[in-house]
C-alpha cells in the first residue's frame, strides 16, 4: 500500500479514521485486504464471524496508545486480539463493520529477563511457547500450560485469565503476574510494570485488567513470575469406581506429596472410550474398565524418590480399596502416551459429533454430588444422552459436555443446546459453582451471565466499566 | 445501658445516629463509654489517636449491613477496625469526632470447614491464630504468618493484604483467598463467597476489596485457601560477606530445593548485634562476624531427606566460597532460637531508640545495589547513621530502618525523619520499588503516595473509589 485508502470499507467507521491510523502505524500496521483480514474476523472454532473497517497491528506501546487515542476521539469501538485461540468469541468483532480489530501480535519483544528476580518482562504479543523457552534458557519455569501454547499470546492469556493443566499447583494466569502495562481507552499509558513480590500502595489495578476480556483497556506488556524449573516428573494413571473415590484420592495425594502434585486430571470411561475410538495410536492405559480415570503428575526440582513417593501414595490407596487399578509410568514415552489420551479428548469429541460444552467450576467437595444430579437430570431430558465428562479435577473444573450424534439435525441440536445448557448451569449455580471456569464469557455466555451473577455484582462491574471506559469503546458486546 | 443516649458525644455526628445504631445492634453492639472506647481510638504503636461518636460492634453480616445503611443515609464516615494491629494508622479514626469506628471483632464465627475443597469460610473478626488452629484440626495448613497472629483478624489481613514470613512460598494474603463477602458503603451485601479455584465470569472484585484498607466497603467474611500441612522443617543460619552473596544463594536454593524453600530472611550484622544487646536469652548463631546473615527454612510434607537437602545446598555454597559460615539446625529448639533472633529485631529497635522505619520492596536483583546506594546517601546526610537493615529477602522486602539514639531531641528527630524518608524512598522509586511492601498506606504514607504513584494510576484509583463509594464515607483520610 503506498497511499492510504480514502473510503473506509464499512460505513459505520469515522471518515478519516483510516488515514489517521495509517499515519500512526504505517503500511505494516494496517490490514485492509479482505482476504488478509479473514483470519482476524473469525474465531478458530469457526463459531463467530464479524466485520471490521480495518485490522490494526501496532508494533509498540506508543503506537498502541496513539491508535487508542484516535479511536477514543472518533468513538470507534475496538476489539483487541491476541493469538485468536479463545473459546468464547471474546476477540471476534461483531457484524456491524464498525469495530476495529487491534491485533497485538507484532508486539512480541521479550523486554527483560531477570533470573535473580525470577521474572520476565514480555510484550502482549509474545507466544506462550516463547515465554516457556525464554524461561528455560535461564533455568527457570513459567508454569502456564495450555493446548494452544504455540499460538496463544501472553496478552490473550492475561485478558482471559487463562487456566490450563497446572492450576492445581501454580494458580491461574492472574497468579503468575507481577505487573502489567496497559493502554487506557483514551490512549494514555498506565505503567504498572512492577517486578515486585509485595506492593501495598493502593488498589490492585493489575487484577482488574486481568480477566476483563479487553473491556477496560489494552494490556501491552506484563512482568511474569518465574518458578524453579522441575527436573523430574512422575506420572500415573488410576482407575476408580466413582468420582468420590478420585476426590478422596486427590486429598490424600495432596497430603502425601504436598506441592509436588502439579496435575490431577479426570475423565470418565466414556471420555476415554471416545479417545480410543477416534484418536489414532492410542491404547487403554489399564486392563479393565473403570467408571472414572485420573491422570496424575508430580514434579520436583529433585529426582530422587519422586516415583517412589507416587507409588507409595497410590499403593496405599489401592490396598485400602479406594481405587481399583494403577499404572505408574516407568519412562517418559509412557507418560507422553498417557497425556495423549487426556489431550485427545477435544479431537475425539470433534470427530464423534457436535458437543454441547460446559466449562464449569465447583467446590471440589461438591463435584461427585453435582455429577450424579446432572447425569440424572440430563438422562431425564434425553434418555440416550452421551455425556463426556472430563477435566481438571484438582481445580474443581469440569468440562461436562454432552455429545450429540453427528447426524443430529441443526434445529433439534440448537433447541436442545439451550435446554441442556440451562439444566447444567442451573445446577452449577445452585451449589455455588461458576458457569465459566477458564474460558471466560466473551459472546458465548454473555446472555447467560445475568441469570447467574448476583445483580449487585453485575452493577458493580458496570460501575467499574463506566469509570474506566466511559465511552464504552472497549470490546462492546462481550462479557457485559 | 438501658436507654440509648440522646446526645452524641461529638457534635459532628448526625442527631439520631446513635438511636438508630442502638436499635440495630443493641447494647452489646455499642461502645459509648470513653474508657471503653480508648483502645479503639489509638493504634497499638501509640502513633495515631482519634475520636469517635461511637464504636459499633456488629455481630453479623446483616447487622453490619444495617449499620452501613444508617451511615450511608446520614453521611456518617466509617473507620473499619479488626484487631487494631496495623502499622500505618489505617484503622484509627481522625480527630474530628465524626467518624464511627466499626469494629468487626464480634463477627468471629468459622462458618464452614471443607477439607476436601481445602477451604475454610471465616468471618472477618476471626483471629489469624484461630484460622491456623481450624486448619490444623483438619490436617491442613493456612500459611499466612505474622508476629501479631494472636491478635490480628482475618478482616484486617484482607483489608491490608498482609504479608509476613511465608510470602516467598505462598504469596501475600490476596493469594490465599478464594472469595469474599462485603458490605458496600450503601449497606447492600455482596456475596462473593465462592469456594472455587477457577472462575472467569467478569471483573475480579475480590482483588479490588483486598488491600483497599477499608476505603471501598467492609469485608465481612472470606473463603480462605488451605494447603497441605508440612510435617517437617529444616532451618539454617548463614553468614555472608555481602548482600550480593545472599541474593545469589537465594537463587541457588530455589533451584536446589524448589518450593520447599518457605523463608529466606535477612539481617545485617548491626541488626543482629542490636538483638544480642537488647533481647534476653539470645546468643550469636555463628562464631564470627559477617556483614549479612540469612535465616533460611525449608518445609515439606515428607521429612525424609529434608535436612540433607538443605545441608547439601548450603555445603556447596560454602565450598564455592559464596557464603562464609553455615549452621544447620539439628533440633527444633535450635530453630526456635534462630527465629527468636529474627523476631527480636522489632523489640530490640524499640529498646535502642527511635527508629525511622521503611517497609520497601525492590526487584530482588536490585537489592544489593540499592542498599549500597542508600547506605552511602544516608551516611552523607548523617555520618554516624545507624542503619538497621533486615527483612524478607526472598520477597525483595526490606525493613531498611534508621536508628536514632534514645536521647535525640524530638524536633531534630522529626526534621531528620522527613529528610531520611525522602532520601530512601526517592531511591526506591528510582529503581521501580514500592514504598509500602506489606504495611499499607493508611495515614503513615498518605502524603507521600502522590509523590511516587503515577498520576494516571492515582486517577484510576480515585475513579474506582468514586464508583464504589460515591459519598466518600469509607475510611476518609486514609490511603487516597
Automatic annotation (TrEMBL), chains A, B:
Domain FAD-binding PCMH-type, first and last residues per copy: 48-229
State the SUPFAM superfamilies in the record: FAD-binding/transporter-associated domain-like, FAD-linked oxidases, C-terminal domain
Query: Which coenzyme or cofactor does it need?
Result: FAD
UniProt keywords (A-Z) are:
FAD, Flavoprotein
Listed GO biological process terms? respiratory electron transport chain
| InterPro entries linked | FAD-bd_oxidored_4_C (IPR004113), FAD-bd_PCMH (IPR016166), FAD-bd_PCMH-like_sf (IPR036318), FAD-bd_PCMH_sub1 (IPR016167), FAD-bd_PCMH_sub2 (IPR016169), FAD-linked_Oxase-like_C (IPR016164), FAD-oxidored/transferase_4 (IPR051264), Oxid_FAD_bind_N (IPR006094)
Q: Which ranges of the sequence are coiled-coil?
A: none
Q: What is this protein called?
A: Hydroxyacid dehydrogenase
Q: What is the lineage of its organism?
A: Bacteria, Pseudomonadati, Pseudomonadota, Betaproteobacteria, Burkholderiales
Amino acid at each position: 500500500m503506498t497511499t492510504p485508502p480514502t473510503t473506509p470499507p464499512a460505513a459505520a467507521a469515522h471518515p478519516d479514521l483510516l488515514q489517521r491510523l495509517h499515519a500512526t502505524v504505517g503500511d505494516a500496521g494496517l490490514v485492509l485486504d479482505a482476504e488478509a483480514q479473514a483470519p482476524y474476523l473469525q474465531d478458530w472454532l469457526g463459531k463467530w464471524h464479524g466485520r471490521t473497517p480495518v485490522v490494526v497491528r501496532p508494533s509498540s506501546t506508543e503506537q498502541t496508545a496513539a491508535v487508542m487515542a484516535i479511536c477514543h476521539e472518533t468513538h470507534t469501538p475496538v476489539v483487541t486480539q491476541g493469538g485468536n485461540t479463545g473459546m468464547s468469541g471474546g476477540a471476534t468483532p461483531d457484524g456491524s463493520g464498525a469495530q476495529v480489530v487491534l491485533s497485538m501480535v507484532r508486539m512480541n519483544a521479550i523486554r527483560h529477563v531477570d533470573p535473580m528476580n525470577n521474572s520476565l518482562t514480555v510484550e502482549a504479543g509474545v507466544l506462550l511457547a516463547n515465554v516457556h523457552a525464554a524461561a528455560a534458557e535461564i533455568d527457570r519455569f513459567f508454569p502456564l500450560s495450555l493446548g494452544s501454547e504455540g499460538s496463544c499470546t501472553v496478552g490473550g492469556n492475561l485478558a482471559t485469565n487463562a487456566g490450563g493443566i497446572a492450576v492445581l499447583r501454580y494458580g491461574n494466569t492472574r497468579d503468575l503476574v507481577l505487573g502489567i502495562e496497559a493502554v487506557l481507552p483514551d490512549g494514555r499509558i498506565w505503567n504498572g510494570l512492577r517486578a515486585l513480590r509485595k506492593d501495598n500502595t493502593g488498589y490492585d489495578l493489575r487484577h482488574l485488567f486481568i480477566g476483563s476480556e479487553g473491556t477496560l483497556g489494552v494490556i501491552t506488556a506484563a512482568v511474569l513470575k518465574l518458578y524453579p524449573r522441575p527436573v523430574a516428573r512422575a506420572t500415573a494413571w488410576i482407575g476408580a469406581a466413582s468420582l468420590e473415590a478420585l476426590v478422596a484420592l486427590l486429598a490424600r495425594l495432596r497430603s502425601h506429596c504436598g506441592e509436588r502434585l502439579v496435575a490431577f486430571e479426570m475423565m470418565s470411561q466414556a471420555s476415554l472410550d471416545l479417545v480410543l475410538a477416534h484418536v489414532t495410536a492410542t491404547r487403554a492405559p489399564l486392563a479393565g474398565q473403570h467408571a472414572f480415570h485420573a491422570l496424575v503428575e508430580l514434579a520436583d526440582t529433585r529426582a530422587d524418590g519422586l516415583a517412589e513417593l507416587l507409588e507409595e501414595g497410590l499403593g496405599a490407596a489401592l490396598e485400602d480399596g479406594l481405587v481399583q487399578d494403577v499404572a505408574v509410568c516407568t519412562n517418559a514415552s509412557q507418560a507422553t502416551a498417557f497425556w495423549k489420551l487426556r489431550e485427545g479428548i477435544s479431537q475425539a469429541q470433534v470427530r464423534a459429533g457436535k458437543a454441547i460444552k460446559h466449562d464449569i467450576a465447583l467446590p471440589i467437595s461438591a463435584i461427585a454430588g453435582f455429577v450424579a444430579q446432572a447425569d440424572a437430570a440430563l438422562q431425564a431430558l434425553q434418555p440416550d444422552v452421551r455425556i463426556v465428562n472430563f477435566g481438571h479435577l484438582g481445580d474443581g473444573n469440569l468440562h461436562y459436555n454432552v455429545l450429540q450424534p453427528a447426524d443430529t439435525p441443526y434445529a433439534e441440536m440448537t433447541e436442545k443446546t439451550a435446554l441442556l445448557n440451562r439444566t447444567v448451569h442451573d445446577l452449577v449455580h445452585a451449589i455455588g459453582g461458576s458457569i465459566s471456569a477458564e474460558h471466560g464469557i466473551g459472546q458465548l455466555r454473555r446472555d447467560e451471565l445475568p441469570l447467574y451473577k448476583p445483580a449487585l455484582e453485575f452493577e458493580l462491574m458496570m460501575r467499574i466499566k463506566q469509570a474506566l471506559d466511559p465511552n464504552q469503546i472497549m470490546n462492546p458486546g462481550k462479557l457485559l
